[in-house]
Amino acid sequence: MLSTNDVQNFVFDLKDSTKPRSVNFYFDHYRGETIFRAVVYLANRGCEWSIKTGGCTMCGTKNTALRREINDEDFYAQLAVAEDLIKKFNDSHDYKLTSFHVYNDGLFFNDAEVTPNVRQRIFELAKSLGFKKLVVETNGIDVMKDNRTTDYLGKAIKFLAPVELEVTLGVESANAQVRSLYNKPDSLEEMRSSLQIIRDKGGISKGYVLVKGPLMTEEEAYLDCVNTINKLKEWSNGERFRVELQPVCLLPNTLHEFLIARGKNDPYYWEPPLMSTLFRILSNFPEMTEDLYTALFARIDKDSSWDFWQNRPHDDQATTFKLYQQLVQYYLHRKPEYVTAALEIVNNSLWEERKKQVLPHPLEIRVSVVKKLISLSKKENIHLSDYLKKYIGCNDNMNFIDACLKHFDKINAAELA
Asked: Are 64 and 13 in contact (CB under 8 A)?
């Protein structure tokens, strides 16, 4: 019988390119059934977008990327480790792993990150190990390029059948300005077209929707998520689409880590979204059931330290674990009643308090500042987080945006001198 007690997490040496970063076995949902899935995080060279530009402002994958070429033999060795663990799990349980997720912290159909030979090995594993679904990630630019040239996607879907191929794109937001805050590489039109290309070729299209990235208030984040899912619904024109809500957590070397370091007196101080905000978003779309969910934190118990929750979505100490339990039940069964039950126990005063937050600068100013910061950090060939630590700092008496504008004025004055 399937049990959440069977959750397993194997972590390997992050510097060893012959070992995956981790292999995880945990629960999921597939075609009306609660299942277990295998998730393999490959050791990788790094996302091409991250290497070229510093990447998305809220993304922490740069922290684990090896930043060097990894040959096919190393990837094969990583996959062999995962295959062995998968077989051991299947042999020791009265149910089999159903869904296979392979992530390279970047763009799956980009030859510079994952070669055709490595992709083929992954496809062969998905079939030989009896999985019903394979899930990968990429972006709209690569899907559009592939559609014009190599058609890796179409060929993969045909080879994998009857294994389903689910392709996930980092939509994050359907608001172009919000996506600029996150430094996303693809346009909204590329995103819309790519999701349709995936469907047209017979794949399952899924979008990540970000919950409260840096420089967003709780209410802005909530409204943006609801509007984004509605836009994805409009784009799908009645066809199936899937959404995974991605609540932002504290990660090193990100914009929101820097905003936390500036302290709570700065109105741009960032804190994780309320867990109840996730349920408020879900409550808008009861009809989506299996196709709308939010990421979990694997297996957590009521004795987990409060420090653990401080970096992740949380409400108050009295209700956070109770809300987490409701989230697990929703994840397992995808029934709207778990969302309703969660909203009956939330501390509404926290939500009302967050709703009062108004940031000093309109969104377009925040966006222009982030764009300028990214441009300046690229000129110095350093990550945005390093640029901020070097030039903006945390010890001034002004808010983050004003501190940045002051820094820009200094640069302009120096250039005119």
From this structure: no
Q: Which residues contact 351 (CB under 8 A, 6 or more apart)?
A: 218, 274, 276, 277, 280
User: In sequence order, which residues have a C-beta less than 8 Å from that of residue 117 and are 6 or more positions away?
Assistant: 72
Instruction: Please report which helix (H) or strand (E) contains residue 74, including its range.
Output: helix 72-91
Question: What's the pTM?
Answer: 0.95
Each residue's pLDDT tens digit, 61-101: 777 777 788 999 999 999 999 999 999 999 999 999 999 99
- Joined together, the tokens standing for residue 370 give 């982030």
Distance CA 261, CA 270 (A): 9
Pairing of strands 164-172, 204-211: parallel
Contact 278, 312 (CB under 8 A): no
User: At 138, is the secondary structure helix, strand, or coil?
Assistant: strand
Q: How many angstroms separate the CA atoms of 292 and 225, rounded?
A: 12
Q: Is 137 helix (H, G, I), strand (E, B) or coil?
A: strand
DSSP string, 384-407: HHHHHHHHT-S-SSS-HHHHHHHH
Beta strand 22-30 with 8-11: parallel, antiparallel or unpaired?
Answer: antiparallel
CA nearest neighbour of 143 among 105, 198, 103, 188 = 198
Instruction: Collect all residues with Cβ–Cβ distance below 8 Å to 150 and sequence separation of at least 6.
Output: none
Strand partners, 164: 133
Beta strands in 92-192 (DSSP E): 99-103, 133-138, 164-172
| Cβ neighbourhood burial of 416 (10 Å; 0-12, 13-18, 19+) | exposed
Condensed to tens digits (0 to 9), the pLDDT of residues 318-329 reads 999 999 999 999
The number of beta carbons lying within 10 Å of the beta carbon of residue 200 is 12
- Alpha-carbon dihedral sign for residues 8, 12, 18, 20: positive
Q: Are 8 and 28 in contact (CB under 8 A)?
A: no
**Residue 307 φ/ψ, nearest 5 degrees:** -60, -35
